Each structure stands twice: as C-alpha cells, then as structure tokens.
Amino acid sequence: MIDLGLSKLALIGVVALVVIGPEKLPKVARMAGTLYGRAQRYLNEVKSEVSREIELEELRNLQKDVEQTAQSFKEEVEKSVSSSIGEVESAWRGDVPAAPPAPSATVTDLERKARDFRRKKLVRSSAIPAWYKSRNGVRGRVMSGAARVRKYRPAAKSNRSFF
Prior knowledge:
- By secondary structure, this protein is mainly alpha-helical.
- It has 2 domains: 7-93; 103-136.
- Helix content is 72%, strand content 0%.
- The protein has 5 helices and no strands.
- This is Sec-independent protein translocase protein TatB.
- Keywords: Cell inner membrane, Cell membrane, Coiled coil, Membrane, Protein transport, Translocation, Transmembrane, Transmembrane helix, Transport.
- Residues 52-79 form a coiled coil.
- It holds the Pfam family TatA_B_E.
- It is found in: Cell membrane; Membrane.
C-alpha cells in the first residue's frame, strides 16, 4: 500500500492548508475522515460477504458428497436385500437349492476362539480357586516385607531379648 511517514503527512497537511485555506481545512478533514471510515466499513462488509459465500460453497460441496455417499450406500443395501429376498423366495419355492454361505472360519477356528473367550472370561470374572493355588504353589496370601524377613531370617544362636 501507500507508505506514509510522518514527514509525508506533514507535507500533505501544509499543501492542504495552502490550497484549501485555514477556515475550510477542519471541515474537509472531517469529511475525509468520514469518507475513509465509510470506505473501511464497506470493504469489511465485502470481505465478510465473500468469506460467507466461500463457506457456503464449501458446505454445498460437502452436502453433495454426503448425499452421493448416502445414495450409493442405499443402493448397495437395497441390492443386497433384494438378492437375499430372491434367494429366500427361490429356496422357499424349491426351485434352486439354496447354497449355504461360505464359512468364513473353520470349525477349529471357532472352537479355538470360543475356548480363548471362555478362558479370558474366567480370568476376568472369577478368582483362581484355592485348591489350584495350593497344588501349583501359588501364594495364597500377600506377605509384607517385614514378615517375609522375619520368616526367612536364619535362627539366632543366642536367646537374648532386646527389651
């Protein structure tokens, strides 16, 4: 933009004082200030309107994309439902034997998943039984550090008491 320093503004003021005159200069300065303010407001309104239009256009594009995606999803669902209905009706009439759906997992995979699920559920929902702990040497109770030291400290050779 225009680079106006203090010296340039002073030069413009002196020229305006000479050309316009000292009695009309305040009125002209006020009018120039109001025109400048109006121009700034007008430019701000135009900028905000342009930005609103851009946002509105982006929203329209987004709406179109969402509608296209929804329409394609709807068509896929209708297609799969109509094919399923056709298969069920043909199987009901006995025209064509209905082919069982291809198994996605074998029986051993299903058994393994069920066993893993039961094992995880047992770990989450119940504690380990006491008989299992005693058979496998799992500690049944938590022992503090001081109690563990007292239990496993070698026996003292003298029977002195400290009290």
